[in-house]
Write a structure and sequence with these properties.
It is a single chain. The protein is α/β, with parallel strands linked by helices and 630 residues long. The protein folds into 3 domains: 293 residues, Rossmann fold, CATH 3.40.50.300; 49 residues, no CATH class; 216 residues, Nucleotidyltransferase, domain 5 (2-Layer Sandwich). Helix content is 40%, strand content 16%. It is built from 22 helices and 19 strands. The longest helix is centred in the middle third of the chain and has 21 residues.
Amino acid sequence: MIPVVKIDLTKKGVTLEKVYHEADYDDVFKKYRDPATTYARKVLSGEILAGYKIRLAMFRHVRDLKRAEKGETDFPFHYDLDQVKMILAFAMICPDVDTGKPLPLMGWQQMILALTVGWRRVDNQKRFNRVLLSIARTNGKTYIVNILMLYAYLVEGDGQFNQDYLYSSITSEQTNKGWNYIMLTANRLKASEYFKSKFVNDDIVVQEMSIRSKKNRSKIIKMSNLAGQVDSFHIRLGVEDESGDSRKDESVTGKITSGMMQVTNHQLIQISTAYNDANVKFRTDQLAMTENIEKDYLRERDDFLLLVWEQDSLKEIEQPETWIKSNPILGLADKHDSMLLSMKSERDNKMADGTIQDFYTRNMNFWTVDKTKKFLDIDDIEGAVTNEPFDMDGRDVYVGFDYSIANDNTSLVFNFPYEADDGTHMHYLYQHSFVPTAAVNGNISLKEKQDGIPYRKAEKLGYASISQLATGDVDLDDVYDWLMHFIDDHQLNVIFFIYDKYRVNKLIQQLDTNTDMPLVPLAQDFLHISEPTAATRKVFTQKRVKYADDPIMQASLFHAILREDNNSVAVDKKKATLKIDVVDAIIDSMNEAVLHWENFNGHTEKVPKSVFGNQSNEQVSAWFKDSFSF
C-alpha cells in the first residue's frame, strides 16, 4: 500500500496550495460528503476565502481522510460519519437563546462540530483531547459552545454516572455571562419535545451554579479561573472561555487537563478572540501547533485541533473584502452588507479616536501589543524571521552581552552588518543563551512553563545551553569557552564587544586579560541606553533585521516593553519574569553596529596589548617585509 506522501511546508518553495494541487483527493471528496469535508474542499479550492491557519486546518483534514482510507499503521484515527450525523442532528434541534428556535448553521459552524466530535481513535474515543478555537467577536461562537456542551452532557453522557462537565472563564462576571446562555439553552431543551422526557427521567435541574442530575449525579458546573478549585473535579468536557486574556492563570488549564487523565473520552475546548498581549500561551500554542501541522511528516500532536479564523496581515484592514477571513459570518448573504457597513464604521471611529488596536483584536482577530508598552509590533518581530541560511564565516561582527543573575538567562548576541542585493544596510542577529535552573531545582520543564520558552527545543537548535551544574547556575567559564570556540570556528572579526558597564564580571576580566577584543562598557541608564534602544526599534520597523526562527529570540522580543522618561526610552529591566535578556544584548550590540557604515564610532578604541598597537595583520606583515628584507 502506497502511503500518503509526507510534506514539510516550512521548506523554501513549498506552499500549501502547491502541495494540495499536486495530489488527488477526488476519492476523499466522493466518499465524504459531510458539511465539514465540503467546507474543506471549498476553502482549498478558493471558493471560500479563508486565512492561512484555516486553510492549513482544512488541508490537514483532507490529508488525514486520505491516511484513514489507506489504513496507514502510524495513523490510528478514523472519521466517523455516524458521529458527525448525531452532533449535526442535535444542532438542528438545539434552540438559540434569543429566538427559542434552532438556527441554521453555516458550513464553517458545522465543520467545527463535525471535526470536534467526528474524528475518533481506534477505541472510538474522541481523537482531539484539546480544541483551540479562535474567531472574531459577534460570530456566534457562544451558540456553538452551547451545542457542544449540552450534546456532551445529554447525549454522549447518557447512561453515565458521576460525570463532571465544566464551563469556565476569566472572572466571575465573564463566567456568568456565558453561563447564562447555557442555562437558557438547557431550559429551552427541557421544554422541547425531544428532551423533555430526558430531563424528567434523569431528574435534571437547571440552577444558578450548576446543571445536575439527581439520578446519575452527573453535572455541568461553572467556575471562574479566579476560583481555582478545578483540580478537585475529573472533567469529561471542559470549556475555557477567553483563554487568550493575559489575566488567565495558566495553571488552571493544567489542573483541568491533569484531572481529565482519569476520564475516558475527555476533551478541553479553549476559545478566545485575540488580545493585545501576544505572549500568552493561547497564542504560543497556536504558533506551535501551526508548525506541527506544517511539518506533516512528524505526525506530532495529532490529538490537538486548531481552528483559527484571523486576518493574515494588518494591511488587510484596508481591504474589507478580506474580512471574511476573521469574520466567517460575513458569508451569510442576508447579513453581509449590513455587517460590513457596521464594521467599516467601527474601523473609522477607532482610527479617529486612537483605539484602532481594539478593532485589530476584536474585529480582525489579530494579535497586537499594547501600543503604550510595546517595544516592537508583531509584524516587525515575525517579519524579521527568515529561513534563508546566513553565512557568518569570516565576517565582521558586533557582540552584545547581557550578564544576568538569579533566574535570568545570560545571553550573547552576534550582530552581523551586511548589505542586501539592493544595497540596503542590514543586520543579521544570532543569539545564544545560557539557561540557569537553580531557581527551579534543576527542573527545566518547570522553567519552560514559568518562562513560556521551549528551552530544550532551543538547545537542540543550537540557540541555548542549559546549565549542567548540580547547582543549576550558569558557569562563566563555560560562557567564555563557548564564545571563544564560536569566534574561532567561524573566524569572526569582532569589531566591538559591548556589555553592561555596571556588571563587570569574570567573563569580561577573562576577555580583557586573554584577548585583544575591543571591549566597550555601556551604561544602562536612560542617558546612554535611549539612543541604541531607539536605533534598534528603527532597524526593525524599517525591515532591516533578519534572524532565524529562534524561539528564545522571538519570546524575548515579544516580552520586551518600554519605559519612558523625558523623551528617553529604554526596555523595562525591572520585571524579571519578562525574560528580555536577549533584547538587552541586541540593544547593546546595536549601540555600535548601527555605525558600521559610518566613518566613526562612538568610542575611543581600546589600546591593545600588542606592541603593534591598532595596526592590522596586513600592516604588521608589511612592516616585517620592509624592515627585515633579508
